[in-house]
Amino acid sequence: MSSFRLNLPDHVQVMKAADKSAGQSSDNSPTSRTAVFTAHGLTKVYRMGEVDVHALRGVDVEMYAGEFVVILGASGSGKSTLLNILGGLDVPTSGRVSFRDQSLTDADEDDLTEYRREHIGFVFQFYNLIASLTAKENVALVADIAKDPLEPEEALRKVGLYDRRDHYPSQLSGGEQQRVAIARAIGKRPDVLLCDEPTGALDVKTGVIVLEAIARINQDLGTLTAVITHNAAIAEMADRVISLSDGRVAEIHVNQNRKEAKELVW
Amino acid sequence: MNRLMIADLQRMWRQGIAISLLLGCGIALFVMTNSSMLSLAKTRQQYYQDYRFGELFTALVRAPNSLADKVAAVPGVQEVQTRIVRDVLLDIPEMVEPASCRLVSIDTAAVNPMNGIHLLLGRFPSDDQRSEVIVSELFAHGHGFQPGDSLTCIMGGRKQKLQIVGIGMSPEYVYVVQPGMLITDDRRFGVVWMPRRQMAAAFNMEGAFNNLSIDLLPKANVDEVIFQVDRLTKRYGGTGAYDREDQISHRRVADEMSQMKTFAFVTPSIFLAVSAFLFNIVFTRLITQQTEQIATLRAFGYRPREIGWHYVQMVILLVVVATIFGWVVGLRLSWWMTSEYIKFFRFPTVDHQFAVTHAVGAVAIGAGAALIGTYAAIRKAIRLQPAEAMRPAAPKDYRGLIAERTGLSKLMTPVGRMVVRRLETNRLATTLSVLGMSLAVAVLVLGSYMRNTIDFVIEFQFEKSQRQDVMLTFVDTLSAASLHDVAHLPGVFAVEPYRTVPVRLRNKTRTRRVGLMGLDTNPDLYRILNDQQQPVSFPVHDGLTVSQKMAELLDAKLGDEIWIDILDRRQPSYRFQIAEVFGNFTDPSAYVNRQQLHALLGEGEQFSGAFLSVDSDAIQDLYAEVKQMPTVAGVVDKNAAEASFRDTVASSTSLMRIVNAVFSGLIALGVIYNCAIIILAERARDLATLRVMGFRRREVSYVLLSELAVITLVSIPIGIPIGYGLSYVATLALDTETHRFPLVIERSTYSYAAIVIVAAASLSALYVRRMLNSLDLVAVLKVKE
């Protein structure tokens, strides 16, 4: 797996260029790019008491290296379920999903743990920082289990919080906490950054700062970034927007002109 | 609200059971001991009444039957029973050492006589048949005697065959103990009832008796009756009348029951208090976790009172479960305990009782503790505005912790820092957890230290204090010349004779009957040790040496002068100074130099018995000869006595000890399990976050388990001194009128407590780890803090 790591900046730049050109061309041919995630016919059924809840009803989706993807959908559309399956927190009821050439469909709990450990960085709506650790320690926590981590200071610098590295979560604003969470997620140089409503608990101004940080990571590290949101405005900063509705992919939209985070209004 | 109740219960039923179990154990122990005690008290009372246990007793040398009428005429006396009572040696072929028995005459014609016999098997002897007898039940059981078997006793130097026609028991001999022995030994000593006419013939007592038993009228003046009876019997060698308090069997039963009462009260009370306290802690923490649910309910418009009622209902439910457990288990155990008890204290039937007041009281204490905890926790939860309670709690402030200031945390990994900082920040929760577990350790020590104490007492008594191999008691006193024969018995290395005389010690209004023992100046075989384990010597001086307990009973101290009445002869009273008081753990006792006692009694060297040191290879020959000696009334083999003591004490206390150990173990498990669950609940979010970030299960368990481990390890050194303290309190409470126990706690007991705690913690940890593995990561993370 480690041979797939994105650890050469030049290489990243090359791939980025390729992605951008592909994104800009009107006939977007997937074969010309490296697919990180490939999912076919994903379904997910939860049994809630007596009723079956169909969270996903046959989703086909691909995501490519270096892309910034926004998964847009209303509450209950299945976007979180999709993200959880891609992130190795859940397995589909049927269908196939793979990360590069590794199938996630048949992975057991331990395989999924190793998968998350090596490849995935998560950012959640409620930050989920460890309250008893400082910003730097929160990042270091992940660095400790990664094979080729960023220095915690470096990760914090990337989100603009180097100066606040010795502060505890209680001393940080919500936006700052979320940026620490992003630093923590990228601290292990993940191949994929998955963000579940990262601005959901934040006001617009702070939300924009957080989105800028995410975009910068995507830009600088070339990390495939998937952001879940119900906020259509955020979709404007994505390379591609996958809209989910009622457990199905309603539309995949390629942004011809990506907006900067600071241009967004909601 | 009922729906909520069901949901809460579904969610927390395991924890609920663990909490209920805590209190249940406290209640069960309380119910068990108190019900057993009540059952025994009731049983004894019924037995005494049904079989007309006498109220006053006196022994004399020989009195004409006509004396009975004079005694009956004393005001306050309702009925007088005269009997012939003799201790004799038995010749039982399969036993090396001689067994002995007490022969007690019975009036075969009497209907419902005083000190009646409850016949278990066979029939009563017929008066005209020679040598038909009833044998006491435990003795018969010890030898496998059945009606139809025979028994050889040595009466007046002649062997005589007795025909067993019945097996029975009597309120006078609920507890059968051989003179000189500490406890019952159903192989070596028993009671044999024989028709009066046969006994009179065998012992040359026609028209005479040597034992009186008196039934009193209600409201009789006991002291006055005793005075009158003593006056009448003195010239016939009366040794002084005494009431039930001084009757051996009754006294032992009463002692045992008063000791049990302390046991029943002190240890279970400590258990109950501890379990109620833990119930309170656990429930308080449980509600603290429910702050959000409470806020949600309030947001829906529930009134504080209604929310309070919801939790009160939960408390009630838990208390009900605890009550059912405590009552059922407690009652069942009390049957078991009572049946263990009546292996030594014999009653015809057991009247099982349920100590209702105590049972209800125990429940009230538990419910009270829980409700106080609930009230405080709910008040705190309700005081928060709903909106405030539902907002994510601000992350805690971790600045300025000791772990930081000392630089301790710098040495740690982030995971180590998480553990240490959390423990330090959540001081109250950590303190409560540590306190809970410390109490579990303490309860374990309290539950098992008695074993050490008993071992200590046995060693003190049988190894250090008594160094003789055999103790002989003589039928009548022997002269120095006759003692010579004893010294020449096979294998005898050394003989140490003693003189004992029944006396009454008096100081102010306090009196005490005791066998005053005359010993050599520095006894070598039968030594009295003080509580520093130094031998006490008995120099010739004008004074008595008494045990601390005796001094307390007489309310006398060193240097006080007290009165001595010699009971078995017509002599004036003497005034003696208390020359020495020694502390140890034996019964109240009094000693004097033997020569001095001879002088006091105005006699030459006359011995009541002797302690022998014997070559163990020759002991069989010794016993063979002793069996032929008409002068010997009883033989006590020290090793046999020790073995029997160990057996009896071990089995009579083992149940209590097992129950204590099991309950303390359960309490420990309950506390630790709850601690673990609470830690898991409080940390679920952090732990789930770590899992999501790719921490392996093992790595995440490490966070949780190290927190539990720190709490456990801190609790042990705190719990041990608390355990010592609780045991000390229990020992103080066991210091009854006649017994004092040393507080001895061996390291093994502390180790045991520590091991049980660590084991319980490990078990809980394993369980919690399993729960951790099945933690729903997504669900936990979706919930705000």
TrEMBL record, chain A:
Keyword Transport: yes
GO cellular component terms attached to this protein's record: membrane protein complex
PROSITE patterns: ABC_TRANSPORTER_1 (PS00211), ABC_TRANSPORTER_2 (PS50893)
Keywords, alphabetical: ATP-binding, Nucleotide-binding, Transport
The name this protein goes by in its record: Putative ABC transporter ATP-binding protein
UniProt family annotation: Belongs to the ABC transporter superfamily. Macrolide exporter (TC 3.A.1.122) family.
Domain ABC transporter: 37-265
Pfam family, one: ABC_tran
One GO molecular-function entry: ATP binding
Superkingdom as given in the UniProt entry: Bacteria
UniProtKB/TrEMBL annotation, chain B:
Segments passing through the bilayer: 263-287, 308-335, 355-378, 428-450, 661-681, 702-730, 750-768
Boundaries of every ABC3 transporter permease C-terminal domain copy: 268-386, 661-773
CC terms in the record's Gene Ontology section: plasma membrane protein complex
Topology with respect to the bilayer: Multi-pass membrane protein
Subcellular location(s) per record: Cell membrane
Pfam families to which the protein is assigned, alphabetical: FtsX, MacB_PCD
Main location: membrane
Keywords on record: Cell membrane, Membrane, Transmembrane, Transmembrane helix
GO biological process: lipoprotein localization to outer membrane
Sequence ranges assigned to domain MacB-like periplasmic core in this UniProt record: 25-231, 430-626
Assigned protein family: Belongs to the ABC-4 integral membrane protein family. LolC/E subfamily.
PANTHER family from the UniProt entry: LIPOPROTEIN-RELEASING SYSTEM TRANSMEMBRANE PROTEIN LOLE (PTHR30489:SF0)
Protein name (database record): FtsX-like permease family protein
Organism: Stieleria marina
